[in-house]
């Protein structure tokens, strides 16, 4: 598996942890209960980028041959065991200069796959990194290389193959030591979530053994056989996608 690039220093990532800690305890002056675990959400660009109808300079799907072809980071989120999560952060300032040394890696491994500006707390708008601040994010991403795990098990990007959901789950369980949660769109893997205790040791995303079977049913939103579609590179061209995509209704 890929190792963490040397230029990503722990002190710089620790700054992000200090920022993200504001999210855990207060919303508009109302105390929130302590969260239970972290969920690392990884998005599959081959599925996300199929929905791209318009391109912009901030959309990672629109970078032609430089568009992502591996799982990229969506976020590292504090969650509750009951399926809910802390809804918002207390007011805190995000200074992108604090992570200037990380920008190259963030743009590559944590790109935005849309043209919209993610909403920050209290109705504001901001960058994806301001919306999803966290610390061990890049460390976890490289340590648990989901793309490498799946490729090693024979699950590679393809527009023709369908793969057993149970096989994908088992491959990740064997490598990570805990059960993931999968999210699908039109029978294609859209997101894979890995879950961690507060000390960042892996844990099952569903801890109730009675409901663990739901990983292969409604809780994962995936059928028994799923696809990992290839990402067809889009190139920015007058604000429009270089190739037209079928509408969601037509692509079903």
From TrEMBL:
- What terms describe the molecular function in GO for this protein? hydrolase activity; ribonuclease T2 activity; RNA binding
Name the source's superkingdom.
Answer: Eukaryota
Q: Where is the signal peptide?
A: 1-25
Cellular component GO terms, alphabetically?
extracellular region
Q: Which SUPFAM superfamilies match?
A: Ribonuclease Rh-like
Q: Which UniProt keywords apply?
A: Disulfide bond, Endonuclease, Hydrolase, Lyase, Nuclease, Signal
Among PROSITE patterns, the record links this protein to: RNASE_T2_1
Sorted alphabetically, the Gene Ontology BP terms of this entry are: RNA catabolic process
The question of whether Cell cycle is a record keyword is answered with no
Q: Name one Pfam family in it.
A: Ribonuclease_T2
Q: Does Acetylation count among this protein's keywords? A: no
- Sequence similarity: Belongs to the RNase T2 family.
Protein's UniProt name: Uncharacterized protein
Q: Which organism is it from?
A: Protea cynaroides
